[in-house]
Amino acid sequence: MLSNIQVVINILVTSALYLLVSISFASIYYPVKYFHIAHAAVITVASYFVFLFANQLLIPFSAAVVLAIALASIVGILFDILGYRPMRKKNLASLTYLIASLGLYVILQNAISLSFGDDTKVINTAEVTVGHEVFGAYITTVQILTICVSLILFIAVNLFLHYTATGKSIRAVSSNPELCNIYGISSNKIILIAFALGSALAAVAGILSAMDTNMTPTFGFNLLMYGIVAMIIGGVGSTRGLLAGSLLVATAQHLSAFYLDTKWMDAVTYIILILFLIWKPLGFSGKRLKKVEV
Amino acid sequence: MGSVELIYMEYFLHLFILICFYTMLSQSLNLSAGFAGLISLTHAGFYGIGAYTTAILSTYYGFSFWPSIPLAMLISGFIAFIVSLIALRTVDDYFIICTLGIQVILFSIMNNWMELTRGPLGIPGIPSIQLFGFSVESKTSFPLLSLLFVLLIWFVLRNISRSGFGKTLTAISEDEIYSQSIGKNVYLSKTVSFTLSAMLVAIPGTLYAHYISYIDPTSFTVNESIFVLSIVIIGGLGNLSGSFFASAFLVLLPEALRFVGMPDSIAANMRQIIYGLILVMVMMTGKNGVKELLQPIAKKS
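ok -> structure tokens follow
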């Protein structure tokens, strides 16, 4: 039986991970306004890059991680240049992008399956850690790292969005891309930066998750969905909402695992999403979902 | 016929039945996705409800195939009605995410409610279909039966699409506010089309259970939903014969890949990569299905 403190620690670790995923997704979603589902494959591909470099090519682990993050970021940029940018010229509905991104996800996920196989892979981090004991509960080094990295990146991204010229441009494009083009901010360039940033953050989340547990070619999809649920619950358009959303999702999952069974974690997550979509479509804060603005 | 030819024959008939199943699935989804513009990722779940209803009724309670079809349709339709009450509060992207969530919940129920569905163990020993005292299990009678159902569903959907209701749905998917302004009940039409589409999807579900005689939740995952949706989009939204051709193409594609000498392990992934590519191409050009995508090329030659 898990102690109460262990449950609290698990909730903190999981919400840190979901927070990172939801920031990475939101930093792309806010400027482009469509669901970039292929982001899930970016999460996955980053950890497979680490596996390739560190476990197969035996490059030092820290170098492998840096390389993987850079490559994942390039994958995100390529998605934008090859996939979405030609579509933006045509003024298509956001649904079209979502379906195209499903296609992109299917392509990249199967490419990963083809190159690495469908079996579960483990990223070896030298020593098998039992974990540190805190008040009778256990927490591993990777889990402490997850919490620290996630909080640092959350603060860093917020500072970046509010206090740098590029960050402000991203926020400007998020609120009105056409006006930005009039003022001489290239929305295409800003969106590209957003893709690079979001994909790099997704890579960090993917690698941390793969180091903590292990990975299959589809693990990114679930992780991304939890991040998206956290974003919708938190309220689209608010960065503090992401924090609240990921805490709520992680708490609900671990409490349902504690009181019911781990197998109902998925269902509980989506039931919360649906409850929010019915009674609080604004999330904790944020914009109303509207079909047509005349 | 020698035994080798017999095996080939059975294999071709198996492929034919698969094409029938996917045609029924994609045409039914086309009713909500194509005509009403409700892109749903829940349809593998409704397919599963159909399969599980008939599996449970026939193995636990000894029901025969025929009464379980309307029962499966009713159960699937009832759940779809509730789902539509929830999901239709959202629009566009959020509708897809919402239906995706419901798909995961349905899968979770099939996978975890051990008392009812036996979870990952699946339900074995589903009896074959009885028709006028004959057992429809031979490799020739089942294809005929599935073909019959394909034609039936095709006929029903074609008539719906040409009826006033079908025209209303098309109008709604093109301009919702305008349709409302000329007095069409948008919400009701959407609910009806979504429910009807889920009821029709339950039919291939029941057939599948009796054909394969063993079902488990892995046939009704999110990926299956995405696959069926891809068939609809590749065939063209609102294009029923397009759904049929796309099903045939995507079912036969791995066989074609195997024929050119690609090993089985790669062929499965390659099929998905190819359908992903087609999906992206169709979406990137903003065309409706492969037919429109190929039109300019056909004109040139």
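Strands of chain B lie at 129-131, 134-136.
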